[in-house]
Amino acid sequence: MSEGALEEPMIDEQGRPEPPFAGSEAETLLGFLEYQRATFAWKVEGLDAAGLATVLPPSAMTLGGMIKHLAYVEDIWLHIRQLGADRPAPWDTVDWGADPDWEWHSAAQDTPEELLALWHASLERSRAATATVMAEAGLGALAKFSFADGNTPNLRWILTHLLEEYARHNGHADLIRESIDGSVGE
After folding, report:
1. Where are the beta strands (DSSP E) in the chain?
2. Of all residues in the chain, what percent are helix, strand and coil, respectively (each to 5)?
3. Would you state the pLDDT for residue 33?
4. Architecture of domain 25-181
5. Which domain of life is it from (predicted)?
6. Is residue 180 over pLDDT 70?
């Protein structure tokens, strides 16, 4: 392998790409994000509508709601806030004031295929947005969004936030999936 060439990621027994062991900061952040995304895909793989609607009391959280929520999280942080792009469908027609958790509640009306297609489309937009920002300005690129206190996150912060979001929900997904069919994580 030539100097500077990226190594092909190793794929584990669940089909997840292992993050690089000695990558750059960007390669490591993106490697772990892809690993967390693949972990989530593994947790929801093969479930029907009933499986995706299963709750583990006392929580009302479902895997279907989690798919739609993570699709929204991908779009809101990388496509909308980092790039400053318009909200794509279905987020552009939601009355967020009437239901701030719309993505969680409305998922029960979607088929597994619709939910996964929505998430995969959001992933494509997120990967494209990340590649664009990385090519133009790198991890330090400021978002086209600022918090109410005036602070503006950069791409590094946003990618780290997405890692946190997936890691937290992967723990939830692991417990819910085990309650459905006994499938457990590592």
Report:
1. none
2. 60, 0, 40
3. 98
4. Up-down Bundle (1.20)
5. Bacteria
6. yes
Residue range 79-128, pLDDT digits in tens: 999 999 999 999 999 999 999 999 999 999 999 999 999 999 999 999 99
173 vs 165: CA distance, rounded Å = 12
| Residue listed under structure tokens 């739609």 | 68
Rounded Cα distance, 18 and 184, in Å: 19
CA distance to 78, 101, 130, 131, per residue, from 124 (Å): 11, 23, 10, 11
Instruction: Give the position of tokens 């790039």.
Output: 83
The partner residues of 11 in beta bridges, in order of sequence, read 17
Does pLDDT of 162 surpass 50? yes
Residue ranges per domain, the chain?
25-181
pLDDT attached to residue 4: 46
Place of tokens 């479902």: 62
